[in-house]
Amino acid sequence: MNSILKTIAGSLPVMLATGAARAQATVPSEALSLDERVNSAFAQATGPFVNLIFAPLPGTAFPWIVLWLVVAASIFTVYFGLIQFKGFGHSIALVKGDYSDPDDAGEVSHFQALATALSGTVGLGNIAGVAVAVGIGGPGATFWMILAGLLGMASKFTECTLGVKYRNEYPDGTVSGGPMYYMKKGFAERGLPGGGILAILFCIFTILGSLGGGNMFQANQAHAQIVGITGDYPGWITGIVFAGVVFAVIVGGIKSIAKVTEKVVPFMGILYVGAALIILIVEFDQIGTAFGQIFAGAFTGLGVAGGFVGALIQGFKRAAFSNEAGVGSAAIAHSAVRTKEPVTEGYVSLLEPFIDTVVICTMTALVITISGQLITDPATGRFVLDEAGTAIATIDGASGVALTSAAFATAFWWFPYVLAIAVILFAFSTMISWSYYGLKAWTYMFGEGRKTEITFKVIFCIFIVIGAAASLGPVIDFSDAAIFSMAVVNITALYFLMPIVKRELRSYNARRKSGEIRKFAH
Amino acid sequence: MLSRLVVGLDGGDTGSRAVDFARKLAARMEDCELILVYVIEWSPFSFQTAEENAQRHRRREEEIDAARSRIVTPAVEALQSQGVKVRGLVRHGNVSDALDRIARDEGADLIVVARTSDTGVASRIFGSSTANLVMHATVPVTVVG
């Protein structure tokens, strides 16, 4: 999700110009030294683990973890016979509710499960991550990003089908699901050893990822956004406010706050896509050129650092980090749906990387490409690199969120303000989602119960304050590494369990063909 | 021949007016069954948190129980004590869609609802449940004033 966080974090305060330099000096000096001590101790302790996860393949700059995700997605794509293309229409029909039993009205619908999972993945990755990919890898990175998004749909299909199939349904009517449950129960069912150990490993990484990337990083970025508008003030204030609001939602069960975000977050998403669409419609004559750059850049690099391999790495990386396909987090969110057929939720979930990466990330990339923020040499049509030679030079030196913001601002001057609010809200909804993922991992290890749940929720809220207050490079590196470790454990399990998904899929499609499963008349 | 009337309840005076009217109508018919329906407004296209989703099944049961014990059962029992043939249903969904669907499924001859007193911007734009029912119903509808 966030491995180039420091790049993004560094560029964020520039976005709204004013608070830039002051934001760096937020923390009082004695606290800073404490931070530094904590950071260096932490970095030393976790460094080897972080380096292992993000280690490049020998002789390249390509992190093996990205290859791991892409290879898995490709295998699932072939194994399930291009399910993301053949099953796309059926996915839409399921989300529309065509196959929902009217007697199940009032239960969690396919749409709701999808929307909930999306609110956990759509966020900074779509806004900042894409800008980084395009800024470093050029428009060509978009091509590889789209490809990775399309492949990732098959990974989601696999994990979410299993998530529903092996969830726990309790007598009190609540459900718990996710990779830890299919690891344990699925492995047992196939007579394989080690499911329990995988489940525990997965839970440990999920908790760490939930406190890091799903919490501290979000709080940190939200604070950077607010400071960009209001000017400098201490981060712990933002942290306390955020922690208070999150506490009210997840511990106090204050539904009204959750209800507001539920409505505002999709609205921000629609506003973002809508603004991008308007820009693309107005500049429609340039879309052809933009796609020309995307295709040409995908294979030649058009002069970006690292050539087309640079474009490919950036594209794959950002897609994988943005849609979390194969990480296993979505399997937790999707497992609450009401359905008798686990495969139906697999079908629905494959729309998630499509919406997140193929649609939203591509929009961002197109707007940046069309905006002319990336400087090209008019004589050769190749990109001009910045002074460091590592990224494409931009008009005002912006990168990350600031680049996206500047690109949108070429059409709407007020858009940076909307974007800042969007980033804050996305951060909030991502926190709520990840608090739940972490909670499920926590209760899997320590048992369900009000006391254990509250313990985790309080810890989660404390980490929000820490995340907003400190500069947390090593901690963020570590939590990123934890999130991708989830993918190592999860995909290992998926390889062993994919025959079960295949069986479910065959049976489901046979019954769909025979007419046993059909649309309900609404 | 048995006739069936579907009656919309709303837990207030409006619903009671519909019930009163349906009772009088039934009394004039030879063999008539009333089906009292309370619809819990719900949309499959709303946005929820993961935790709400996980607890949804339980909440739904609780909502149905509450609607039964507070609204539907008292109304059914009151009619039964007057010798009316009656049963009650609780459903989630859109009020007008749900009433129409139940009427079709049960083979009802008529839906009886009361005129709602919805005001405000929302009902101006989207129309009241009653207005929607009248416009889209596939079964005759009587609106009690």
Keywords:
heterodimer; A: 522 residues; Amino acid/polyamine transporter I; two-stranded antiparallel ribbon; globular; B: 145 residues; alpha/beta; Rossmann fold; 5-stranded parallel sheet; Universal_stress_UspA (chain B); UspA (chain B); Putative universal stress protein (chain B)
Top CATH class of chain A: Mainly Alpha
Helix content of chain B: 40-55%
Number of domains of chain A: 1
CATH level-1 class of chain B: Alpha Beta
- Give me the number of helical elements of chain A: 22
Number of E-state strands of chain A: 2
Oligomeric nature of the chains: heterodimer
Number of helical stretches of at least 4 residues of chain B: 5
Q: What is the global morphology of chain A? A: globular
Beginning-to-end CA distance, first to last residue of chain B: 28 Å
Mean of residue pLDDT values of chain B: 86
Please trace the helix and strand order of chain A, writing H or E for each element: HHHHHHHHHEEHHHHHHHHHHHHH
Largest sheet of chain A, described in full?
Answer: 2 strands, antiparallel
Largest interface (CB < 8 Å): A-B, 40 and 27 residues
Give the neighbour order of strands across the main sheet of chain A: 1-2
CATH architecture of chain A: Up-down Bundle
Membrane topology (chain A): Multi-pass membrane protein
GO molecular function (chain A): amino acid:sodium symporter activity
Pfam family, one (chain A): Na_Ala_symp
Keywords (chain A): Cell inner membrane, Cell membrane, Membrane, Signal, Symport, Transmembrane, Transmembrane helix, Transport
How would you describe this structure to a colleague?
The complex is a heterodimer of chains A (522) and B (145). With 522 residues, chain A is mainly α. Chain A has a single domain (5-510), classed as Amino acid/polyamine transporter I, CATH 1.20.1740. In chain A, 73% of the residues lie in helices and 1% in strands. Chain A contains 22 helices and 2 strands. Chain A has helices spanning 5-11, 20-24, 29-53, 64-79, 83-86, 88-96, 110-121, 124-137, 140-165, 179-189, 195-230, 235-250, 255-282, 284-300, 307-323, 329-334, 342-349, 351-371, 401-409, 415-446, 450-469, 473-514, and strands at residues 168-169, 175-176. Chain A has a two-stranded antiparallel ribbon. In chain A, a hairpin with a 5-residue loop joins strand 1 (168-169) and strand 2. Chain A starts with a helix and ends in an 8-residue tail after the last helix. In chain A, 58% of the residues are buried. The mean pLDDT of chain B is 86. Chain B has a single domain (2-144), classed as HUPs (Rossmann fold). Chain B is α/β, with parallel strands linked by helices and 145 residues long. Chain B has a 5-stranded parallel beta sheet, with helices on both faces. In chain B, helix 3 packs across helix 5 (129-136). The interface between A and B is medium-sized, with 40 and 27 residues. Chain A: GO terms for molecular function: amino acid:sodium symporter activity. Chain A: Keywords: Cell inner membrane, Cell membrane, Membrane, Signal, Symport, Transmembrane, Transmembrane helix, Transport. Chain A: One of its GO terms (cellular component) is plasma membrane.
